[in-house]
Amino acid sequence: MTKLENQGLYVIDQKDGLSLEFSKLASMMEYTRVTTVAEVRDLTVDQLDFLINDEANSIGMLLAHLVSVEKAYQIDTFENRDFTDEDIKMLNPALELGDAAREQIKGKPIEYYLEELEQTRKKTIDTFGTLPDSWLFEQSPFWYGKPTNNYFKWFHVFEDELNHRGQIRVIKKLMSASKK
Predict the structure, then answer these.
(1) How far apart are CA 171 and CA 69, in angstroms?
(2) d(C-alpha 27, C-alpha 125), whole Å
(3) What is the pLDDT of residue 180?
(4) How high is the pLDDT of residue 5?
(5) pLDDT tens-digit profile of 104-154?
(6) CB 64 within 8 A of CB 45
(7) Does pTM surpass 0.85?
(8) β-pair partners for 148
(9) What is the pLDDT of residue 8?
(10) Which InterPro entries match (predicted)?
């Protein structure tokens, strides 16, 4: 791992503008994002678009997916509503990935993905700053009608990122091995 610039990265603590519970969540999300960006920030367009096989996801696709997942949870939790047809068009093909994503998500430099990630996260953190801690514990039905709360939903956002960061690391290794 490259040297990380943020001196407080390994401390889950109070964040300016956020309540204590939101600070804890934002601390974990920040660590996840910083480490994801460290994995991708120097990649070329060809590296971002590299496919292991015809059914694989590229690193660029996974970065776009991270943005779409976070936007989906912004709609679900901040707006407390189902997706409209317009939302689905905005979120896809990055949310679902697959053939359409392989066709459409390519040819963009890392700066594009980093800006999308940053702007989407800014909206999340700004909105967190307007909500009371009690909002995190509000429950609603989730997968298969099981109860969950907003805290778990936002944990799932960075859990998804951690999983995909692992995939990014594997893709980078396979990409390097294919050049040998």
Answers:
(1) 20
(2) 11
(3) 66
(4) 56
(5) 999 999 999 999 999 999 999 999 999 999 999 999 998 888 999 999 999
(6) no
(7) yes
(8) 140
(9) 76
(10) DinB/YfiT-like, MST-like
Q: How far is residue 24 CA from its own chain's centroid?
A: 17
Q: What is the DSSP string of 88-99?
A: HHHHTTTTT-SH
pLDDT at 2: 43
C-alpha angle 57-58-60 in degrees, rounded to nearest 5: 125
Q: Taking Cα atoms as reference points, which of 28, 48, 35 lies closest to residue 124?
A: 28
DSSP state of 43: -
Helix, strand, coil percentages in the chain from 3-state DSSP, rounded to 5:
65, 5, 35
**Residue closest to 91 by CA, chosen among 115, 74, 67:** 67
Instruction: Extract the residue ranges of the chain whose pLDDT is less than 50.
Output: 1-2
For residue 6, the model assigns a pLDDT of 58
Q: Which neighbouring-strand residues pair with 140?
A: 148
Rounded CA-CA distance 36/32 in Å is: 6
The residue length of the chain stands at 180
For residue 156, give every residue at least 6 positions away whose Cβ sits within 8 Å of its Cβ, in sequence order, or none.
73
Residues 6+ positions from 105 with CB-CB distance below 8 Å:
58, 60, 61, 64, 93, 94
